[in-house]
Amino acid sequence: MVLNNIEKLLEKYNNAETTLKEEAQLRAYFESDTVAPHLEQYKPLFKYFSKSQEEQYTKDVPLKPKKTIRLYQWISVAAVTVLMLGLMIPRIMGPTEEEKEEALLAYNQTMEALSLVSLGINEGKEQLGALTLVGENLDQGMAGVSRLDEFTKAKNRIFKNK
Amino acid sequence: MKQAEFVSLVMPFKDKVFRLAKRLLVSREEAEDATQEILLKLWNNKAKIEEYKNVEAFSMTMTKNFCLDRLKSRQAQNLKIVHSNYTDGNASLQRQLEVRDSMDWVSRIIEDLPEQQKIIVQLRDIEQYEYAEISKMLDMNETAIRVALSRARKTIREKLTNTHRYGIK
């Protein structure tokens, strides 16, 4: 009776008409020790099926690397931002109040020093007036000398004529 | 979605993905690589995952497509050595040794099936999915699946019966 049933199931099985339940029944039958001799050839098949189910994937899947790459990306973004801020901030903020005061002080001091120098230059200029006087006398002297030249020419002529 | 959440979502079917990949790619290393690739793809698209109703079916479809692509590019790259016309009448000793390892035989018989049938046998007989689920995964109607499965099971039966007889001889 059981054997008859199994044979029917096998027929259905080969026509791909069995349900999962019936296939489980077949598997159970062929795993038992009471397999009819003329069905012996099916034994390895069902044994193979149940054995194949046990095979497992044991390798680890490296899901993390992707994450660390993302972290590096963010670090580089942060680094660039810091660099840009370092360049931009001094420009935007400009000089502080203290720096402005210092600059004004330096300006005033320079102006004072320069006005002192210009005062000295004016004094020197007055003294230069005396020098121009000397220059004028020198010109008069030169005129005298040119008269002397005339005299010498006249004297030479007289001596030649003699 | 956090990593722990993702792992608990993927955990129930990652072995199934691996087994399907191994069924198609045969080598364990390649199947491991493929599984890793698929899990990483899922992880990278984890934002979209929540929209899918059935992540498992979606992953199985992805696995199928990925492995078939792999096989295609492998065929394009490598020269295959096939002994399709290789017959040896005196191979009884070798055969007997092979019969002893009958499980190995079953796996080899399945390996010889066309890809489509391989996938269906894997999904139905090993992973025990309902026909409705398989039809979703493979984008085929149930009747076509039943036909392909029946063909595959009959091929397996025939080859097993032959092997069995040789074994007895």
Automatic annotation (TrEMBL), chain A:
> Superkingdom of this entry's organism?
Bacteria
The protein's name is Uncharacterized protein
Lineage of source species: Bacteria, Pseudomonadati, Bacteroidota, Flavobacteriia, Flavobacteriales
TrEMBL record, chain B:
In terms of InterPro entries, this protein maps to: RNA_pol_sigma-70-like, RNA_pol_sigma-70_dom, RNA_pol_sigma70_r2, RNA_pol_sigma70_r4_t2, RNA_pol_sigma_r2, RNA_pol_sigma_r3/r4-like, WH-like_DNA-bd_sf
What positions does the domain RNA polymerase sigma factor 70 region 4 type occupy? Answer: 105-155
Which organism is this protein's natural source? Winogradskyella aurantia
Q: Which family does it belong to?
A: Belongs to the sigma-70 factor family. ECF subfamily.
Q: In its UniProt record, which GO terms are filed under biological process?
A: DNA-templated transcription initiation
Q: Does the keyword Transcription feature in the UniProt annotation?
A: yes
**Does this entry carry the keyword DNA-binding?**
yes
| Pfam families given in the database record | Sigma70_r2, Sigma70_r4_2
Q: Which UniProt keywords apply?
A: DNA-binding, Sigma factor, Transcription, Transcription regulation
The residues covered by the RNA polymerase sigma-70 region domain are 9-75
Domain of life, source organism: Bacteria
Per its record, how is this protein called by name? RNA polymerase subunit sigma-70
Q: Which GO terms describe its molecular function?
A: DNA binding; sigma factor activity
